From TrEMBL:
EC number: 5.1.1.7
Organism lineage string: unclassified sequences, metagenomes, ecological metagenomes
A GO cellular component entry from the record: cytosol
Keywords of this entry: Amino-acid biosynthesis, Cytoplasm, Isomerase, Lysine biosynthesis
GO molecular-function terms, A-Z: diaminopimelate epimerase activity
EC class: isomerase
Organism: bioreactor metagenome
Protein name: Diaminopimelate epimerase
């Protein structure tokens, strides 16, 4: 099996994008594990397939570096929007993309012909525990609720952007041991489909810092859905307003919770190389 790919990142959260209209991949899950490996493969946080859709301009599927499939993704959406436009698959600058969790709407924003940013309507946040999913004995949203993990206690807020997120506010983000604590929360039995984990430090009502442990991928430099979920959690906890800049390890994302209850994410999308993957 061999296929052409291009390599993209959104703030250092990196992906191998494959044109599923022309390229054939037999087994997405095992291919994702091989391709994402940074020593034996191309190296990426995920493998992304751009596919035809019946009810949107495109459909995309994303596989984490451990082979698991994610329902939704933020950074990938910005990259895919730019990818389909620049590779001539569409002339639209505003398009619809079908995901496992519904439709999202990216828009390429130009200024004098130069791409300024990609703004994505990420749809509505979901707070109902069943929709996240997170096990709870009530159907009320989980906002600032204690969770004991080992000998540590965290106050968690749970938000789904189509994929699950568990947000924890801390005073000092640099004091968090992400790779130790992240997997304990990711795989905690209260999350039947596991969860992405965000640690967040509030700088002021419009600025926060976030670090992420991603389900199925580990520490990454940025997470778009995580940034959206974090803004929702911060606003629900009355720690920020409904629009903020999120400072991630790989750079900044701007997130707004609109009056239509949709979340709007703006940020960059960058192609770094193209190639042909060879598999023995
Ligand atoms: O939900 C998951 O399993 C995530 N690891 C998917 C990837 C999310 C992504 N980093 C984002 O920006 O939303 C692409």
């Amino acid at each position: 099996m061999q296929f052409n790919f291009s390599k993209w990142h959104g703030l250092g959260n990196d992906f191998v994008i494959v044109n599923g209209f022309t390229e054939k991949i037999e087994d997405y899950q095992s291919t994702a594990i091989k391709v994402c490996n940074r020593h034996f493969g191309i190296g990426a946080d995920g493998l992304v397939l751009v596919l035809p859709s019946e009810n949107a301009d495109f459909r995309m599927r994303i596989f984490n570096s451990d082979g698991s499939e994610a329902e939704m993704c933020g950074n990938v959406t910005r990259c895919v929007a730019r990818y389909v436009y620049e590779s001539g698959l569409t002339e639209k600058t505003k398009m619809t993309i079908e995901t496992q969790a519904g439709l999202i709407r990216p828009e390429l924003i130009f200024n004098n012909g130069v791409l300024q940013t990609v703004r994505v309507d990420m749809g509505e946040p979901r707070l109902n525990p069943e929709d996240i999913p997170v096990t709870s004995n009530s159907n009320q949203p989980i906002i600032n609720t204690p969770l004991v993990v080992g000998n540590q206690k965290f106050n968690i807020t749970c938000v789904s952007m189509g994929n699950p997120h568990c947000i924890i506010f801390v005073d000092d983000i640099n004091a968090v041991n992400l790779s130790e604590t992240g997997p304990l929360i990711e795989k905690n039995p209260i999350f039947p489909r596991k969860t992405n984990v965000e640690f967040v430090q509030i700088l002021n009502r419009e600025t926060l810092m976030m670090r992420v442990w991603e389900r199925g991928a580990g520490v990454t430099l940025a997470c778009g859905t995580g940034a959206c979920a974090t803004l929702v959690a911060a606003a629900l906890n009355n720690r920020t307003d409904k629009a903020a800049t999120l400072k991630l390890d790989g750079g900044d994302l701007h997130i707004e919770w609109g009056s239509d209850n949709h979340i709007y994410m703006s940020g960059p999308a960058t192609e770094v190389f193209q190639g042909c993957y060879l598999n023995e």
